[in-house]
Amino acid sequence: MLKYYLNRAGQIPTSVHPFVKRESSQQLKPPHPLKKSDFVLTPYINSSNLRATYQILNTVGPYVLLWVLAVKAASISLWLLPPIIVLMVLFSLRCFSLMRKLTQL
After folding, report:
1. Is the pTM of this model over 0.85?
2. How far is 89 from 86, CA to CA, in rounded Å?
3. What are the residues whose beta carbons fall under 8 Å from the beta carbon of 21, sequence distance 6 or more?
4. Longest dimension (CA), the chain
5. Measured CA distances, 6 to 22, 95, 98 (Å)
6. How far apart (Å, rounded) are the C-alpha atoms in residues 51 and 44?
7. Does pLDDT of 105 surpass 70?
8. Average of pLDDT values for 88-98?
């Protein structure tokens, strides 16, 4: 079974691996090599201002709401803050990546 997967993957050369016999080394060629046409990138090449605005709004909006929620939760109990802070960190990372992408354009 291991020999079959090693042959299929083609990741380990047969001359090095002890489980693969030398007779089967000719069968290790992949059925078809990757071609440029295997990757379809044309839908992602063009930018869309509408999509960009939506991405910014659905990131910055919840981030601001989480700040307001954190201030309200801090007055109630400090035990409510850790889950809110975790969400704020995730949204701030997303904000960073979006703004970083905007500055590179």
Report:
1. no
2. 5
3. 14
4. 74
5. 13, 42, 41
6. 12
7. no
8. 93
CB burial of residue 6 (10 Å; 0-12, 13-18, 19+): middle
| Residue 12 buriedness (CB in 10 A; 0-12 / 13-18 / 19+) | middle
Q: What is the DSSP letter of 29?
A: S
Residue with the larger pLDDT of the pair 14 and 4 = 4
Rounded (10°) angle between helices 81-104 and 49-76: 150
Contact of 95 with 63, CB cutoff 8 Å: yes
Reported as a single tens digit per residue, the pLDDT across 51-90 is 889 999 999 999 999 999 999 999 999 999 999 999 999 9
The residue assigned the tokens 């050369």 is: 13
Mean pLDDT across 20-49: 69
CB atoms < 10 A from the CB of 92, how many?
13
Sign of CA dihedral 76, 77, 82, 83: negative
